[in-house]
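FW: tagging you since you asked about this chain on Friday. Here's the raw sequence from the shared folder, copied in full. Didn't touch anything.
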Amino acid sequence: MDPSKIYELYIQKEPRICIDTRSKEIKNSVFFAIKGAQFDGNDFAEEAIKKGAKIAIVDNKKNISKYFIHVGDVLETLQKIAKIHRQKYNIPVIGITGSNGKTTTKNILTTILSSTYKTISTQGNFNNHIGVPLSVLSLREQHEIAVIEMGANHIGEIQELCEIAKPTHGIITSIGDAHIGEFGSKQNIIEAKNELFKYLKKTNGWIIYNANDPILKRLINNYIKSIAYQIPVLRKQKKNHILKEFEYQCNPFIEINYPNLSYIKTQILGKYNINNIISAITIADLLQTPKEEIKKSLKNLKLKNNRSEFIEKDRNTIILDAYNANPTSMSSGIINFIEIYQYLKHKNSWFILGDMLELGNNTIQYHQGIIEILKKHNVQNCILVGKVFNNTIAENYQKVNSIKECIDLVSKLEINNASIFIKGSRSLKLEQIVSYL
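HL: got it, structure written out here
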């Protein structure tokens, strides 16, 4: 069936779209039988109907049912109807990509914008060739602004996502070494992220960028509809220190004295988050969010979902940043923790660090570099988790292969009265350790 006809059916019935039969959203949905690396959604089409889906979009001719609609490619069909749906909405759509900070920036920006506008944003980590069309198809008449996160692990992907989401505004939060094993080189990462800027230049959209970042500044190349922001000056914590305008500090939470907003004390940890905060302020200001609402939002926001999450337990204080990891975010997280743990309740510091994945041929070297940072800063207590870290030279630190082994070790150590920094790639699921601390 033609995608436009499927879209008309979708609009007429006003159902939800679902790609997982285990989801609570399966009832009254249109089930798209997406193929994954380890599964074929066509195999679950009958189950979807039994669980309440109205119809199933399939691309396997063996699937026969009056409730099935056959197409050439299910994923391509999903993307095409998302493009049709996007054309109905003449609202600001902010595209966010970057090696580090894109999800945190999305969360901060969405919180601020939601204070004033009916805002929709990417849920969870739905930021790829499947997640972006699903986010776009969530748009409804009441929405005034959309914030769409765009991830990528190969050249051309951001361009494809832009054609679906059609952003009117965009930001690259940073360009680092994330997924370098799949991209092949830093230059390829730059080229891939720049696809967002290229799209916005072609469509006369707004670009927001960090003027302190020479790579991003170069990519702007004097484009007229660009808004530059700068990072405030970091002041090291001093007793009774009063922040001057355009200064910030972390003790341990970020405090800022920002032009036109004056003093803001946030509940956000880590100086690596200052870029995420300032970029969100800049975009919100561009979209005419009242300054008092910006301040109030930043004052009340607490980061969750394993991203710079601050957890106080009876025995220990934990900074959980275990959603993902690459050499840039890992090193900045470690250094930040070293700088701020003295302001936490417990002065005894511990590190639990997991493997960084998708780094290519230089994986061991990147992990060894992290160990050198730990040694340089005289870190005494550290547990390294994962097969890659187990292949590094780290005589003074304890090593385990898996989350299970880490839990066993942590249980035996009985760590008490400590401030603990936890970080690693998503697949290691290091957040499971928190219950044992």
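FW: The two ends are 55 Å apart (CA to CA).
HL: agreed, and The first strand starts at residue 16 and ends at 18.
FW: great, closing this out.
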